[in-house]
Amino acid sequence: MENTYQDGDNYICADCGHEWPMVKATRADDNAEPQVKDVNGNVLENGDSVALIKDLKVKGSSITLKMGTKVKSIRLVAGDHEVDCKMDSGSFMLKACYLRKV
After folding, report:
1. Neighbouring C-beta atoms of residue 41, cutoff 10 Å
2. From the centroid of its chain, how far is CA 98?
3. Do 5 and 13 contact (CB within 8 A), yes or no?
4. Which pLDDT tens digit goes with each residue over 42-71?
């Protein structure tokens, strides 16, 4: 807007009174990858082996991934489904809350 002014390290809008910093704050861990933890709280890393803790139905298919199935060499990715893995029945993206580190 046109009615903004600088006050110290902030900009201030004279119309609404909103304040915001001139320089975007950055955290030291912004570039760090978030830790992915299994159901027991163990930190998962690329290449780990995990096991399923419950039966999972595959959406859009008649395949069911059985509880206790061991998955080797997982790969961590960003997003809602954090674990990318390959099994005998195909390649899947899984949530870490359904996995236990082996």
Report:
1. 7
2. 14
3. no
4. 999 999 999 999 999 998 889 999 999 999
Instruction: Provide the CATH topology of domain 33-102.
Output: SH3 type barrels. (2.30.30)
Judged on CB neighbours under 10 Å (0-12, 13-18, 19+), 88 is exposed
Structure tokens at 66: 């059985």
- Say how far apart CA 89 and CA 93 lie, in whole Å: 13
In angstroms, the CA 95 to CA 33 distance is 16
CATH 2.30.30.40 in the chain, residues? 33-102
Among residues 39, 35, 57, which one has the least CA distance to residue 95?
39
pTM score above 0.85: no
- Check if the beta carbon of residue 33 is closer than 8 Å to that of residue 40: no
